[in-house]
Amino acid sequence: xxxxxxxxxxxxxxxxxxxxxxxxxxxxxxxxxxxxxxxxxxxxxxxxxxxxxxxxxxxxxxxxxxxxxxxxxxxxxxxxxxxxx
Length: 85
Known about the structure:
By secondary structure, the chain is mainly alpha-helical. Helix content is 74%, strand content 0%. Helix 1 (6-23) runs antiparallel to helix 2. The longest helix has 20 residues, at 27-46. The chain is elongated, with a radius of gyration of 16 Å. Residues 76-85 have low confidence and may be disordered.
């Protein structure tokens, strides 16, 4: 039976949270999980917790979300409402 390392399970959970928040249009939460996932991946790389294959797999997933979320900014709704008056 294959058991994943704690860090790999944590990365997968963060990636699922990124996807879920994007689907629900919670961009700020998705960006927060992306930042956390990037930090954990960097720690795994520096401490050699994951092997090269695992690092490549998670790097590609996280990079994909980073590209998808490029340009996402927080919308200041109060400014939008003020401009409409």
